[in-house]
User: Fold this.
Amino acid sequence: MKKVLLSVILVLGAMVSMAQMASVIKFPQLQAMMKQNNDTTYVFNFWATWCAPCVEEFPNFQKISDATSKNKVKVIFISLDFKKDLNKSLNPFLKNHNVTNSVYLLDELDYNSWIDKVDKDWNGDLPATLVINNKTGVYKLYPHPFTLDQLQQTLKPYIN
Assistant:
């Protein structure tokens, strides 16, 4: 019995340690990610732990990411939490949700300096999702939350 319990503890510990931790980036790094010219479709989800609709839709992106792991679709979370909350709010959230996707905290307090560079029609509301495939010319911002069904329908053309 002790061996079984120890095995379960080790497996659970390994799963928890696989959870992603956020990396802090500046806008030029995000811009470089957005300009990748390959046949992968990138889904950038702009969100924050303090945004209730963001947190509500978050599991939908996790499910899509898991379902499309064999396709050329990559979900990347861009957190707009404050840098001071990285270890207090963001990383604990990621750990609690076993997030394995890439997560970046965008450390840019002057939102007006970069929001128009993401999309000229975006007013900065969260959540927002940007779908990009530079090889096929896809560049579309969705400035609203998604249900799982809506997200599946939106991404269906990009999933082979």
